[in-house]
Amino acid sequence: MIDKLKELIAEAEAFTAQSKEEVEQFRIKYLGSKGLLKEYFAEFKNVANEQKKEFGQTINQLKKTAEDKVNALKEALESLEEDNGLYGDLSRPGEPIALGARHPISIVKNQIIDIFSRIGFNVSEGPEIEDDWHNFTALNLPEYHPARDMQDTFFIQTDPDILLRTHTSSVQVRYMEENKPPIRTISPGRVYRNEAISARSHCFFHQVEGLYIDKDVSFADLKQTLQYFTTEMFGKSKIRLRPSYFPFTEPSAEVDVYWGLETETDYKMTKGTGWLEIMGCGMVDPNVLDNCGIDSKEYSGFAFGMGIDRIALLLHQISDIRLLSENDVRFLEQFKSAL
Ligand code: PHE
């Protein structure tokens, strides 16, 4: 009988299983309530006295072997299940991550920020929901000033007037109120105007406005800065400044860059003139400085503002401004190779 037990021990030791069911069958066969161990334990009383000790030891050894086997196999199968089920095959190659593309507006905005940061301009931001003071009054546009009509405004609330900013000049006002000259800052951001939506204009768009204030800042400094910008941005250094009007600058000008007339696209873009209007600018009106707590007798400065959307349309030859806000991935994916 002891030999039979030893055989069973060897069998139990050699046992392997592929599934939990097999382990369970093994457990029932050896350790179950009608299992082999039960049978052999029942035999104990029939064993001759001098063999009892060896028999007892052997049967206990069988019990331990079977129990250890069941536990070890269960554990191994469970961890295998975890690998395959919960986590999958941990050694398989990862899923490729699809890279997105930057939005053309962000690409152009980042280029502009980069160009101005190289000559010491920092970036300032402000709220899109503005009060009348920061969007109009402080900028030399008092109530009932006719130039307020230059920018059709979305009002959120009247008395006091709360509105969606029509330009990021409002950020410049906030910056001047909070910082002492010298000031060199550009303010990128989204602006809103109550205009009919078409291929050429939208009720919201994006601007970058710049502000430079220090002692003895002159119109020549403005022109030099603009020329640096157009050279870096478009690779074109020929610009012209056409007299214009903005309430917050005096004198004011419209900036045109000479694009050239080399290709048919140049003709189309510039309507056959070779010149492209890219921004407004001027010397900050002394009233604006005083409104913002900067002494206009001591300091002077210049400001400029440009539309990012328009520049993105130009640079990428996009024919409809609405494409910029439709978020059609087929359109956006075309900018993967850009910055
Ligand atoms: N704020 C003007 C606009 O939105 C642009 C501008 C800024 C013009 C600074 C002159 C100086 O049209």
Automatic annotation (TrEMBL):
Binding residues for Mg(2+): 250
Xref: CDD domains: PheRS_alpha_core (cd00496)
Claim: Manganese is one of the keywords in the record: no
Gene Ontology terms, MF aspect: ATP binding; magnesium ion binding; phenylalanine-tRNA ligase activity; tRNA binding
Highest taxon, organism lineage: Bacteria
Keyword terms: Aminoacyl-tRNA synthetase, ATP-binding, Cytoplasm, Ligase, Magnesium, Metal-binding, Nucleotide-binding, Protein biosynthesis
The UniProt record lists the keyword Hydrolase: no
Cofactor: binding comment: Binds 2 magnesium ions per tetramer.
Localization, UniProt: Cytoplasm
Reactions this protein catalyses: tRNA(Phe) + L-phenylalanine + ATP = L-phenylalanyl-tRNA(Phe) + AMP + diphosphate + H(+)
Cofactors (names): Mg(2+)
SUPFAM superfamilies: Class II aaRS and biotin synthetases, tRNA-binding arm
One biological process term in Gene Ontology: phenylalanyl-tRNA aminoacylation
UniProt-listed Enzyme Commission number(s): 6.1.1.20
GO CC annotation, single: cytoplasm
Residue intervals of the Aminoacyl-transfer RNA synthetases class-II family profile domain: 108-334
Gene3D superfamilies registered for this protein in UniProt: Bira Bifunctional Protein, Domain 2
Family membership: Belongs to the class-II aminoacyl-tRNA synthetase family. Phe-tRNA synthetase alpha subunit type 1 subfamily.
Subunit-structure text: Tetramer of two alpha and two beta subunits.
Name of the protein in question: Phenylalanine--tRNA ligase alpha subunit
Species of provenance: Winogradskyella wandonensis
